[in-house]
Amino acid sequence: MRALTYESLGNYMNAIEDYSSIILIKPNAENFYNRGKLLMDLKFYQEANNDFMTSLYLNKKNEYAYFYKGTSNLFLGKYLKAISDFSQAVKFDVTDFDAYLGLAIAYNKVNDPNNAKLYFEKANAILEIGEDLKTIEQYTDTFWFQNQYYYFNNNINKLVGLYN
User: Closest by alpha carbon to 88, among 101, 111, 69?
Assistant: First the structure.
């Protein structure tokens, strides 16, 4: 609880120290996942990725850890690993529009426009956007819009360009 309090107060170094202490006492999947999420927020993508890998080693059923591991891999330029992780996330939840958007971006990064368009369309169908994309504001309820706006804005324009 103290780590969460530090995190909410913006005292990130103390939060990381507390999460690390918790992991020493109780090295379970949830604790590695929680520290990984904080590390993602702080843009320590490799360290976050390591925590998500450990979390998944301890609990292979955490769909959120797959999503965040995919996200960290995407930011690390490990696009094929990101595709694998996002694919695992959607196996748990076929309505995970954030994972589908991650797949669309990752496939676009590896120059696979057919799959990029396929997963972009799946995300848009779930979000009820369809092909009627007018503005990035239609994605306000997504992880990408709320947490990675500039990255997402840049990449969504590339995905929309697949239709031209």
Answer: 69
User: What is this structure's pTM?
Assistant: 0.91
Helix (H, G, I), strand (E, B) or coil at 112: coil
pLDDT digits (tens, 9 = 90+) for 54-89: 999 999 999 999 999 999 999 999 999 999 999 999
Residue among 113, 111, 112, 122 at smallest CA distance from 89: 122
What residue type is assigned to position 15 of the chain?
A
- Token digits for 58? 């301890």
**Pair 74, 90: CB distance under 8 Å:** no
CA distances from 155 to 40, 106, 107, 158 (A): 19, 10, 11, 5
Question: Which of 139, 163, 156 lies closest to 105 in space, CA to CA?
Answer: 156
